[in-house]
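can u do me a favor
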């Protein structure tokens, strides 16, 4: 708490009262604008055609464990999870076994690489 008080005192010395209120006004406007723009991204299912294209591109193999998978068992996975700022664009999607997808959870590509699921490059190119 002491550090916060010292920081506030330094801030008060550096910034005059009028410019501080102007700065606070600018920050409040920016925060309001940011809050109105940043809508949470919702997960969208692949269309049957998109799923078929990904399945063929991956030669019927799970993108995570590289084992063959049945088309109907193929689960849609986001390379960069929606919770980590990923999108629903096709380039951010891949097909994996249902069990591979549930065990992956929201792991990042870096975490997956550390867990032995290939390099980041391997993960995004297969």
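np, heres the sequence
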């Amino acid at each position: 708490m002491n550090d916060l008080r010292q920081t506030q005192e330094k801030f008060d010395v550096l910034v005059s009262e009028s410019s501080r209120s102007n700065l606070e006004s600018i920050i409040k406007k920016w925060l309001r604008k940011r809050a109105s723009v940043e809508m949470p991204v919702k997960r969208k299912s692949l269309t049957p055609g998109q799923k078929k294209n990904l399945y063929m591109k991956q030669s019927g193999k799970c993108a995570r464990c590289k084992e063959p998978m049945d088309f109907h068992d193929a689960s849609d996975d986001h390379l960069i999870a929606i919770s980590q700022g990923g999108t629903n664009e096709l380039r951010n999607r891949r097909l994996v076994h249902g069990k591979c997808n549930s065990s992956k959870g929201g792991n990042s590509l870096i975490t997956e690489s550390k867990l032995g699921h290939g390099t980041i490059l391997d993960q995004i190119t297969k």
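Residues 17-37 form the longest helix (21 residues). hope that helps!!
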